[in-house]
């Protein structure tokens, strides 16, 4: 097992160069699916984070009750209404018919209310069959989804509670024990795991990256949604799930450190979004 602490030099290798003659869509097309009557903000945060890390196009699919506020928050979002308030088989079927055929990656689950577990499984399988790389978060993290993910380009991004629901084991407070638990489950299920915490642990079961944050201001709600958007945005440009997850963690942390320096312990996740382009600057390469 290879274990490394993430550094600027390592992450630079994970973010591809942009061609000077590239056209719209060449640098990533992302789908974000989330939101509910209560949690309208989560998919917005993910979508803008994906755009801020250099993705060309982001499609944001939210329940129809959330469509107007989602469109109002930013003209940059292409909003596709989910026909039901929760994720149902009918809503998934309609959404699959509305998606662009050249979609690169998707992130699913932030704030999402799921009425039918099988609808989620059908949706995940359908996207994987189309060779869409996936980042799964929050309500999409259920154990039934694991058999679909084995050895595909998928990242799961649980916090400790979601990790227990997904894998059936609780991460302890011991850093070493957390690392071993992530490595074991990543290897067993053939998936890249990003366990969020004071130290983020990212592993595909053979290589593990660690990122010690020490950014207490980032306990504010929504920072995980920003991370999910970054994972999907970077996955749209780099098919390697481990590298994209590691880079997303590092950039999220750089942005968080910068905001904490400016605002102390009083940041919001919207502040984090504004800092992503500055955090990304060291990785900008044009060929």
Explain what this protein looks like in three dimensions:
With 287 residues, this protein is an alpha/beta fold. The chain contains 11 helices and 10 strands. Strands 1-10-9-8-7-6-5-2-3-4 form a 10-stranded mixed beta sheet, with helices on both faces. The longest helix has 23 residues, at 241-263. The protein starts with a strand and ends in a 7-residue tail after the last helix. (6S)-NADPHX binds at residues 42, 111, 159, 225. Belongs to the NnrD/CARKD family. Its EC number is 4.2.1.136.
Strand content: 15-25%
Q: Would you identify the CATH H-level superfamily?
A: Ribokinase
The largest sheet has its strands arranged as: 1-10-9-8-7-6-5-2-3-4
Number of strands: 10
Tell me roughly what share of residues is in helical segments: 40-55%
Identify low-pLDDT runs: none
End-to-end CA span: 34 Å
Tally of individual domains: 1
Shape designation: globular
Largest sheet composition: 10 strands, mixed
Rounded to the nearest angstrom, the radius of gyration is 17 Å
Succession of helices and strands: EHEHEHEHEHEHEHHEEEHHH
Provide the residue-averaged pLDDT. 97
Class from helix and strand fractions: alpha/beta
CATH architecture: 3-Layer(aba) Sandwich
Please tally the helical runs, counting DSSP H or I stretches of 4 or more residues: 11
